[in-house]
Write a structure and sequence with these properties.
This protein is α/β, with parallel strands linked by helices and about 230 residues long. The protein is built from eight helices and six strands, in the order ααββααβαβαββαα. It has one domain: Uracil-DNA glycosylase-like domain (Uracil-DNA Glycosylase, subunit E, 3-Layer(aba) Sandwich). Helix 1 packs antiparallel against helix 5, helix 4 crosses helix 8 and helix 5 crosses helix 6. The longest helix is centred in the middle third of the chain and has 17 residues.
């Protein structure tokens, strides 16, 4: 029997397995930058967001300290999320292009967004052990999506962690081991794994990732998921 996403979300939100991340997410909430001073912070791990009947799953790296860690929704409240949800809207997965808060009316159709690590990490970089402790949540989410056909990994770290989640789920990783590249495709069991550059400002400000580049990957995901 498939596990409800709501049960996985409850387990994620209550998680305190990584002391370093618990301390960082709470310290970030207690000492916000001036522009967010006075705002309530979520300061807990982030569950997946989107359509329970999703045919496409997007896997990011981890929440931002003053983005998702503040708003309580993945990729919401920071520049990366602005870029991602505008592209999801253009590709027909989102009803609006902006994601600013949990009650802003945003809804996804055919897509679910999650992350390889669920807490905001120092330096935006979880430790290998922290990724490992989060991996079961991703494995459970994949198993909970009955219509899932395509997984889009946002960045090389998310790509590698998604492959590990597939392996933990009992799927065979074909040789040679798939390598990350923007627009890369690999067939893993019943799923197609697509690679895309992460919509971080490091990539979007430099032009390494443009809106049309990300939209092409998302439209490819939609085509493969039919």
């Amino acid at each position: 029997m498939r596990e409800p996403l709501a049960r996985i979300a409850r387990d994620v939100v209550g998680c305190r397995r990584c002391p370093r991340l618990v301390a960082w997410r709470e310290a970030s909430a207690a000492n916000p930058p001036r522009r967010f001073r006075g705002e309530p912070y979520w300061a807990r791990p982030l569950p997946a967001f989107g359509d329970p009947e999703a045919r496409v799953l997007l896997v990011g790296l981890a929440p931002a300290a003053h983005g998702g860690n503040r708003t309580g929704r993945i990729f919401t409240g920071d520049a990366s999320g602005d870029f991602l949800f505008a592209a999801l809207h253009a590709a027909g997965f989102a009803n609006q292009a902006r994601s600013v808060s949990r009650d802003d009316g945003l809804a996804l159709s055919g897509a679910l967004v999650t992350a390889a690590a669920r807490c905001a990490p120092p330096g935006n970089r979880p430790l290998p052990s922290e990724f490992e402790r989060c991996r079961p949540y991703l494995v459970r989410e994949i198993a909970a999506l009955p219509a899932l056909r395509v997984v889009v990994a946002l960045g090389g770290l998310a790509f590698d962690r998604t492959l590990q989640a597939f392996r933990s789920a009992g799927l065979e990783i074909p040789p040679p081991r798939p390598r990350f590249a923007h627009g890369s495709e690999a067939r893993i069991g019943p799923y197609t794994l697509l690679g895309a550059y992460h919509p971080s400002q490091q990539n979007t400000f430099t032009g390494r990732l443009t809106r049309p580049m990300l939209e092409r990957v998302l439209r490819r995901a939609r085509a493969l998921s039919r």
